[in-house]
Design a protein that fits this description.
globular; alpha/beta; nine-stranded mixed sheet
Length: 333
């Protein structure tokens, strides 16, 4: 399937001049979007709840701060950058009463629109600009003049210019300097959830833990198992990130490459492929989203139980001890 890729020359930042942009939330993405937009010469306001710890932080960064209600009332463009699980309640309480025809409601992930948790009224543009990187990377690359690639999508085009405005916003945060791919809310949501669950988070976490457990059960030292199955993973991922699988295979030993070809398909076999298809079917049908929504409504009992169980896994205990040997590794809390 061919995709359309847009760059700086395809986007007109002037479309946003004289229009107030309310960035709702000042977390990872919120701080990056707002600071980048501000540095691009645009009128930015941060929407937060009263008493937010981020209120003073945003003000110290030179940004105007208001309550979510005030920001939604005064803005022309509202970008929702609070977590997925809090967006519906916040929208229903603070934004829906204020939203009016002619405004633009934007998202950086399609979850709440695609799964109909948020249903904007007619007369409002609904679009998405989704940078493919965490907020601190979006901010750093912008300051370096490089930019982070992003996806854009239009769900509702009341004005007839929703795509052009989304591209202008993407340019404002620096994304068009790297390249912006047009997609749909549906495709962004489903592929994003699938990637997180099958590879980036779920798949990698389960693979690392299972390999670690296999070596420990066979009598090998947990420290060796950690180094071989977890610690060195970053080295491999960095090579893939830099030049693809072929560059990774070029960079490792021939022994490692041969093991890649001969044993990889045994670990990730047809059974795993069918499991991935099942994961995708649950995402596409809305079953997974429904379960996650219900989990949040119930106070997250299963979520917290799973988090606590994995935090106490032997891999985590041994890893913490070994990382203490490497003071240059300081994870952010």
């Amino acid at each position: 399937m061919a995709v359309t890729i847009y760059y700086d020359a395809d986007a007109d930042l002037g479309r946003l001049k004289g229009r107030k942009i309310a960035v709702i939330g000042y977390g990872s993405q919120g701080h990056a979007h707002s600071l980048n937009l501000k540095d691009s010469g645009l009128d930015v306001m941060i929407g937060l709840y009263k008493g937010s710890r981020s209120w003073e932080v945003a003000q110290q960064a030179g940004l105007q701060v208001a309550t979510v209600e005030e920001a939604a009332e005064s803005a022309d463009i509202i970008m929702m950058l609070v977590p997925d699980q809090t967006q519906k309640e916040l929208y229903d309480r603070a934004i829906r009463p204020a939203i009016r025809p002619g405004q633009t409601l934007m998202f950086a992930h399609g979850f709440n629109i695609h799964f109909k948790q948020i249903q904007p009224p007619e007369g409002v543009d609904v679009s998405m600009v989704a940078p493919k990187g965490p907020g601190h990377i979006v901010r750093r690359l912008f300051t370096e003049g490089v930019g982070t690639p992003a996806l854009i999508a239009v769900q509702q085009n009341a004005s007839g210019h929703a795509r052009e405005d989304a591209l202008a916003y993407a340019k404002g945060i620096g994304a068009t300097s790297a390249g912006v791919i047009e997609t749909t809310f549906k495709d962004e949501t489903e592929t994003d959830l699938f990637g997180e669950q099958s590879v980036l988070c779920g798949g990698v976490s389960a693979l690392v833990k299972t390999a670690f457990e296999t070596l420990v059960e066979a009598g090998y030292a947990p420290e060796l198992a950690y180094f071989e199955c977890c610690h060195e993973l970053k080295l491999i991922v960095d090579l893939i990130y830099q030049g693809g699988l072929s560059y990774m295979r070029y960079s490792v030993s021939d022994t490692a490459e041969y093991g890649d070809y001969t044993s990889g398909p045994k670990v990730i076999d047809e059974h795993v492929r069918e499991s991935m298809r099942d994961v995708l079917r649950n995402i596409q049908s809305g079953v997974w989203a429904k379960n996650w929504i219900l989990e949040n409504q119930a106070g997250r009992p299963s979520f917290y139980a799973m988090r606590n169980k994995d935090a106490n896994h032997q891999l985590e205990v041994v890893g913490k001890q070994l990382r203490a040997m490497m003071p240059w590794l300081k994870p952010r809390q």
